[in-house]
Design brief:
Largest sheet: 2 strands, antiparallel
Strand content: under 5%
Radius of gyration: 13 Å
Structural class: mainly alpha
Number of helices: 3
Number of strands: 2
């Protein structure tokens, strides 16, 4: 079960420090030990105008734009974490 912001044991300034620009919500607010690269929203499908790397599709869904900087794959997942399918993981590894 995801951690709600009010249930999170970390103070808000710590959540902000851990969060990477381009995330859909605060880092570390999902189930423990889950990371962006295991999320269905972690994708390499974005416009060619950005630097190489994966972006958060949930961020795009919420804002209508891709963030310029890529997300590090080891970023702790946010509350929108959705486990990636095995076929997606295989496609991303190519």
């Amino acid at each position: 079960m995801p951690i709600k912001p009010d249930d999170n044991p970390l103070p808000i300034d710590e959540l902000q420090r851990r969060t990477v620009p381009g995330m859909a919500y605060f880092a570390g607010t999902s189930v423990r030990r889950t990371f962006c690269d295991n999320c269905a929203f972690f994708t390499f499908e974005h416009t060619r105008t950005h630097r190489a790397g994966a972006r958060c599709a949930k961020y795009f869904e919420l804002t209508g734009r891709w963030h310029a900087a890529p997300l590090p794959p080891t970023t702790p997942a946010c509350k929108y974490f959705k486990p990636a399918s095995k076929s997606k993981k295989k496609n991303d590894e190519r």
